[in-house]
Design a protein that fits this description.
- The protein is about 60% helix and about 10% strand.
- By secondary structure, the chain is α+β, with helices and mostly antiparallel strands.
- It has two domains: about 100 residues, no CATH class; about 325 residues, no CATH class.
- The strands form four sheets. Strands 5-6-7-8 form a four-stranded antiparallel beta sheet, covered by helices on one side. Strands 1-4 form a two-stranded antiparallel ribbon.
- The radius of gyration is 38 Å and the shape is rod-shaped.
- It starts with a helix and ends with a helix.
């Protein structure tokens, strides 16, 4: 009888384990579209049989532990590579917008405006006493000046909008860090839902910045740029500091909130934003200012040696305050009277257009290093185009790496409907087999009792 009761107990335990496993499998199927859900399994272990006089009196299985199917090593690889992907993606998007501010082949672009400016001086050289030619020089100059001013304003406005995005990303980082610290305080242990939530939060954090995750027991710590932003139940907020120079060129620095401790962040969405804010836009603004300042200086240097229709000399064409793209302007006197535009290189020769031709020839003169003003402008735009191409290539390559790791994670932790349905059928058969075992043992016990 004892042996039959052991058989019945084995069957009962088999039914319970199968039933619990069916519930786990059903939960997996129900969460097949849940972002960040990790597939679960019931950890089933055998119970050793009791041995008496060489006979096995009972054996069963036990399913007491629910486990998440994840590979920590793959997770860490993903967290290491994911920030690079988001850095390149962010930089490519921002650089394309930056390129849109500096159009090359449009009628309103700097290149077209410069060509028309030089062309108006050439026309004036051919007809120095023409009021129409002088008005054209003035109009083209004012349009060029307006273009410089507009591009500078758009660049600084674009930089300001990126600064707002930097603050927004820091708010996300601080919120995630606080949530991770909160989960640490709960000490999730076997709470698999909290463990999944923690992984989702770390995934989001790796999108924003480069991270290192250290697990200590049931708690984790997270560092960004060597600074621990999550430690046990505490989180440390980060903040941005923005500094602008006299030309409106800004530099952003990330610091631990309330301190001067700087945090170096080069990858992730935040790293991409910082790179464009503190390097690409300042470089572009610096080149634009060099272009405008050189134009004003070189034209003024020649114009001051020439003579206008009133035989005056020593006057600047551009305002003396023209030291950059934001400040370049046509001199107020010339704006009021185009006859003050110098075109002659000799006194009392109003029909002499040599000075106007010399200014027109500046278009091909090496005035910025070994480059002309036009070449410098084209190089500036071409360099930005090359940077975009490089970033696009890096983004594409890194995307392949991240996709591979994501698929690898999914193959372990993701739910496959085919696999889960197959397992569900197997578990139902196991439950039916265990129930038949119980029923058979029960019938045998009843038969034996009737024989007594």
């Amino acid at each position: 009888m004892a042996g039959l009761y052991d058989v019945m107990e084995s069957g009962k335990q088999g039914m319970l384990v199968s039933q619990a496993s069916i519930q786990v499998t059903a939960r997996n199927i129900a969460n097949i579209n849940t972002l960040g859900y990790s597939r679960q399994r019931l950890d089933v272990t055998p119970i050793l049989p009791e041995i008496l006089a060489g006979f096995s009196l009972g054996a069963a299985i036990s399913g007491e532990t629910l486990v998440r199917l994840r590979e920590d090593f793959t997770d860490r690889q993903f967290w290491n590579q994911n920030p690079l992907q988001w850095q390149y993606d962010t930089e490519e998007s921002l650089l394309q917008q930056l390129e849109g501010i500096l159009p090359v082949d449009t009628e309103t672009g700097l290149r077209s405006m410069l060509d028309e400016f030089w062309g108006s001086w050439n026309n004036l050289a051919n007809d120095p006493e023409s009021s129409v030619a002088r008005t054209s020089v003035l109009n083209k100059a004012e349009t060029l000046v307006s273009t410089f001013n507009r591009v500078h304003l758009e660049l600084t406005s674009f930089q300001s909008s990126i600064g707002t995005e930097i603050d927004a990303r820091l708010d996300e980082i601080n919120l995630i860090a606080a949530e991770l610290a909160k989960i640490n305080s709960v000490n999730p242990g076997d709470n698999l839902e909290l463990e999944d939530q923690r992984v989702r939060l770390i995934d989001d954090l790796s999108r924003l910045a480069p991270i290192q995750v250290i697990r200590s027991g049931k708690s984790i710590s997270v560092t960004i740029g060597g600074i621990s932003v999550v430690s046990s139940t505490n989180s440390i907020p980060l903040e941005a500091s923005f500094e602008l120079d006299s030309q409106g060129i800004g530099v952003a620095t990330i610091k631990v909130a309330g301190t001067d401790l700087e945090v170096k962040i080069a990858t992730g969405e935040l790293g991409g934003l910082l790179n464009v804010y503190s390097k690409d836009i300042p470089d572009t603004l610096d080149n634009l200012n060099t272009l405008a300042a050189t134009l004003a200086t070189e034209v003024n240097a020649l114009h001051a040696t020439g003579f206008d229709l009133n035989n005056n000399t020593g006057n600047n064409f551009f305002a003396s305050t023209s030291d950059g793209a934001a400040t370049i302007a046509v001199g107020s006197a010339i704006q009021a009277n185009s006859s003050l535009i110098a075109s002659s290189d000799a006194a009392n020769e109003p029909g002499n257009g040599n000075l106007a031709q010399a200014i027109s020839d500046l278009s091909d003169a090496a005035t910025i290093g070994d480059q002309s003003i036009g070449e410098f402008q084209r190089t500036m735009v071409a360099s930005l185009g090359t940077r975009i191409q490089e970033t696009r290539f890096l983004r594409s390559s890194q995307q392949s790496v991240v996709n591979h790791l994501a698929l690898k994670r999914e193959s372990v932790a993701g739910v496959s409907i085919e696999e889960e349905m197959t397992r569900l059928v197997q578990l139902e058969q196991s439950f039916a087999t265990a129930s038949r075992l119980v029923r058979t043992a029960d019938e045998l016990i009843r038969t034996l009792l009737q024989m007594i």
